[in-house]
Each structure stands twice: as C-alpha cells, then as structure tokens.
Design brief:
α5 crosses α7 and α7 runs parallel beside α8. The protein has one domain: Aldolase class I (TIM Barrel), CATH 3.20.20.70. About 40% of the residues lie in helices and about 15% in strands. The chain is α/β, with parallel strands linked by helices. The chain binds phosphoenolpyruvate.
C-alpha cells in the first residue's frame, strides 16, 4: 500500500516574515496526519530558515531545481550536495516552467535526476503535456519520452527512489484541473509503462498529480487508485488551502 505525499511548490514566492507565519500554520494544521507526508519546496535562499523551522516537525522540505553538475564554473547554479547541506529531502526536477522557460530538455532533466540521487536526495520528476499536445492526441508519447529519458540514462531501478508528478501544463496555474478520470488515465499509463520494465518499482512508486489542485478538488483526485497525492503550486501559499489538501490525502 503506497502512502500519499503532498508537496508544495512555492515557485518564486516567499519572504522571511511571511514564511514563518505560513509554516507555523501548516505545522499546526497538519499535526497528527495519518498515512500522508507533507513537504514544501522553497526558493534556495529560504532553505536555512525552512530547515531551522521544520527540523523539529513532521514536515519535509526541498528545492525546486538543481544543477546537473557536481561542481565547477557554473555561475548562479546550485549543486545537489549544497541542497544536502540544508537537509533537503526532495528536489523538483523537470517542472514544466523549467522545461518551457529555461529550455531544459528531457536529457538535461535526467542528468538533474541523477545528480539529485547521487547526493542522497529524492527527485520529484515532473512530466506532462501541453494543451496543443493533448489536443493533438500525443499526451502518451510526450510523457513516454520524458519518462524514458530517465529510464534510458539510469535504468528503471532509479525510479524506485524517486517520486513522479504528472502535471498537465494546461492545468498549471490556470485554475483548470484535469478531471479525476483524465488524471487517473495518465497515471495508469505511467504506472503501466514502468511495470513493463519492473512491476515492483511500478507498484511502489508514488505518482502525484499537479495542476490547480485546491481544497475543493483534492479529495476526489486523491481518491483515484493511481494518484498518490499532489504537487501543489498556488494553493501551497495559502495555509488553509494547503492544510485541507494535506488532510484530503490522509488514509
Ligand atoms: C505547480 O507549480 O507544480 C503547480 C501544480 O501549480 P498550480 O497548483 O498553481 O497549478
């Protein structure tokens, strides 16, 4: 039986004072959660603050990106070992905003996935199709390509120590959510594709859904058999929303 995970993606939002208020509320509001983990993936500069506030709590934390390189002359980049210094548990890799705005292709994402695992952290690998791709009925091909880049580089066993997030690009930050059945269909496709390589890895892998998950739609999404929680953008910045979503993931 897979446990659930709800991970917040703060994107480029936050501030020392507001983070403290938000995290205090989230810690209190999610105390005693059963069968579900919660995490927040924050901008790099807030990692020391988040580490010190969350270390004594049940909430995990992580980053939203990482360099594929171990170290060197890569101005402005942050290595996975640096993230490990701040006790990150998760690193989001391949978010559609990184793919679209920073031209990260699937091979680069696979290298970032590898760098994350090499440092002992857990990648949250994002995959998902654009609206044009969905309308052109190539959703499965797009997701297969994004997934296969990791499997080809590292082998399917690498997925055992990772989390996947299906995030249809047309649902991110748009208020347009995939229906539970639309999401379930893609989650099942992902799990079946991995099962063709290794049934145990496929059965145990957490596959999150992301894309305009809110307090009022989380429960029906999380009730689907292949949806193991959510990657939450906008709603992770609103304490009541995020707490309700975390509670919806309880067993
Ligand atoms: C995201 O950024 O991963 C995301 C799912 O955003 P939102 O929940 O705002 O759609």
């Amino acid at each position: 039986m897979r446990s659930k995970l709800v991970a917040g993606n703060w994107k480029m939002h936050g501030g020392i004072a507001q983070n403290r208020v938000l995290l205090d509320l989230i810690v209190t509001g999610t105390t005693g959660l059963r069968g579900a983990d919660c995490a927040v993936c924050v901008p790099y500069p807030y990692l020391p603050q988040v580490q010190s506030l969350l270390q004594p709590t049940h909430i995990f934390w992580g980053a939203q990106n990482v360099s594929q390189h171990e170290k060197g002359a890569y101005t402005g980049e942050v290595s996975a070992a640096m993230l490990a210094d701040f006790a990150c548990r998760y690193v989001i890799v391949g978010h559609s905003e990184r793919r679209a705005l920073y031209a990260e292709d699937s091979h680069t994402v696979a290298l970032k996935f590898r760098a994350t695992q090499t440092a002992g952290l857990t990648p949250i690998l994002c995959v998902g199709e654009t609206l044009e791709q969905r309308e052109a009925a190539v959703t499965e091909q797009v997701i297969a390509e994004q997934l296969d880049a990791v499997i080809e580089l590292l082998g399917v066993s690498a997925l055992a120590k990772s989390v996947l997030a299906y995030e249809p690009v047309w649902a991110i930050g748009t208020g347009k959510t995939a229906t539970p059945q639309q999401a379930q269909d893609v989650h099942a496709f992902i799990r079946n594709r991995i099962a063709a390589h290794d049934i145990k890895v496929a059965t145990e892998l957490q596959v999150l859904y992301g894309g305009s998950v809110k307090a009022n739609n989380a429960a029906e999404l999380f009730a689907m058999p292949d949806i193991d929680g959510g990657l939450i953008g906008g709603a992770s910045l609103v304490a009541d929303e995020f707490i309700t979503i975390c509670r919806a993931a309880q067993s």
